[in-house]
Amino acid sequence: MRSIFFFAALMSLGMLVGCAERKTSNTRPMPSASPSSPSVSTASPLPTSLPTPKNGDYPAKGKVTKINNELGSVELDHEDVPGLMPPMIMEFYVDDKSVLKQIAVGDKVDFVIRYKDGQETISKITKAK
Fold it and tell me: Are the CB atoms for 88 and 49 separated by under 8 Å?
């Protein structure tokens, strides 16, 4: 009887050890860099900060994608604006709402972005020639 008890205790201990070993064996080891293999960084690159633009007028080109006469804004798919911003689709307010009557969605336009203290507005916009 004592040997059955001992055997059962031994089996239970073996199962516990087996489970513990199985649990740890399922974890993957971290890859190690060796001198012969290139090191791989899993860290995300830090964003680079762009310099703050200078206050002033920036000429640009783009295509009208939306007009909001009520708000006095125009959405443009514009090219790179050197010194100000990369190409993108962006909505701008205009200084004078009446200029919006001279353009239509789909028009290619030349325009001037006035940058002042972090704010961009369209100070001039005309159909491209």
Answer: no
Cα angle value 120/77/117 (rounded, 5°): 10
List the Cα angle 68/71/72 in 5-degree steps: 75
Give the Cα separation of 91 and 83 in Å (integer). Answer: 19
User: What is the model's pTM?
Assistant: 0.62
One-letter amino acid identity for 63?
K
pLDDT for the residue 44: 57
In the chain, which residues have pLDDT < 50?
19-35, 37, 39
Q: Which domains does the chain have, with CATH numbers?
A: 56-127 (2.40.50.320)
